[in-house]
Specification:
alpha/beta; eight-stranded mixed β-sheet; 11 helices; elongated; binds guanosine-5'-triphosphate; binds magnesium ion
């Protein structure tokens, strides 16, 4: 059952009369991948609201509170609207969908926004990763800049930027390796990429997205914490939303880490990506849609 349907069922026929309702809601939100403190805070806000108001229509009020939480987080300017050369670096642990997302984003920017896009195979850790990106590049008829396995990821990004600057494109999307990083290893690896990018691209046009697998639930929040403190992320791409009935992680990312979710992916095909829309997401999450 979709989480929204569960939530709808939970509230059906209930008014906000008893404290127990809010305690149960708290448990249910945790089940929906909310962080513990986040679900407590949300249930409290709802409870306080209904102390003063008439006790019906609890679900729409919950949706309002949740949407407000998401809207509080500063959204970045749409990179697609930028005229200047833009670099999107995709980060994340093993298997979350970075390479697939790189291809989806490249396709989105190219087809939908008319931007000439270059893919950078900065996951030089595995030979298969380079081939995987090349296959996507072939299918999408898009240039892939790659070096050999074991090469320097920063050098790959450098060459991709060079290619873009000499007229080959206006957006570079860089795939990176999904090793389980310690914070210091991650910082070291990225320092070099940062130096390369920052020498060629304005700060506002250097975007770092963390790719998170929605099916990992609240563990995704722990991943986001580590990456964000090491790298200072600009936002999150949530993948595999088709495989989970939940998604509460989005609210914890916003309220605990001030991280906006920017894209949401719902399958393996190139078109299975959408710009995250707070209103639509909340409607679906609460089953109001
Ligand atoms: N159902 C579903 N599958 C996805 C989605 N995104 C990626 N996948 C699948 O998840 C698997 C891993 O995707 P990759 O793109 O290779 O992940 P990665 O993060 O690059 O993996 P590593 O390079 O090994 O760290 C593949 O089988 C993808 O097809 C999604 O939104 N929904
Ligand atoms: Mg990969």
């Amino acid at each position: 059952m979709k989480f929204g349907e569960k939530l709808k069922l939970f509230f059906s026929g209930k008014s906000a009369e008893s404290d127990e309702l809010f305690d149960d809601l708290c448990d249910l939100l945790i089940e929906g991948d909310f962080g513990v403190s986040q679900s407590f805070k949300t249930a409290e806000m709802l409870k306080n609201h209904f102390k003063k108001e008439n006790k019906d229509n609890v679900l729409p009020k919950l949706a309002e509170i949740l949407e407000d939480e998401l809207l509080k987080v500063k959204q970045n300017d749409d990179p697609a609207a930028q005229e200047k050369l833009t670099v999107i670096l995709l980060l994340g642990v093993n298997g979350v969908g970075k390479t697939t997302t790189a291809a989806k984003l490249a396709n989105l920017y190219n087809v939908k926004y008319g931007k000439k896009t270059i893919l950078a195979a900065a996951d030089t850790f595995r030979a298969a990763a380079i081939d995987q990106l090349k296959i996507h590049g072939n299918k999408l008829d898009m240039r892939v800049v790659a070096h050999k396995q074991g090469g320097d990821p920063a050098a790959v990004v450098y060459d991709a930027l060079d290619a873009a600057q000499s007229g080959g494109g206006s957006v570079v999307i860089a795939d990176t390796a999904g090793r389980m990083h310690t914070k210091s290893a991650l910082v070291e690896e990225l320092k070099k990429i940062n130096r390369v990018v920052e020498a060629k691209v304005e700060k506002a046009n250097y975007i770092k997205y963390l790719v998170l697998d929605a099916t990992t639930g609240r563990n995704a929040l722990a991943q986001a914490e580590i990456f964000n403190s090491a790298v200072s992320l600009d936002g999150v791409v949530l993948t595999k939303y088709d495989s989970t009935a939940k998604g509460g992680i989005v609210f914890s990312l916003a309220s605990e880490l001030q991280l906006p979710t920017v894209y949401i992916c719902t399958g393996e095909k190139y078109n299975d990506i959408e710009v995250f829309n707070q209103h639509e997401f909340v409607k679906e999450f609460t089953g109001i849609a």
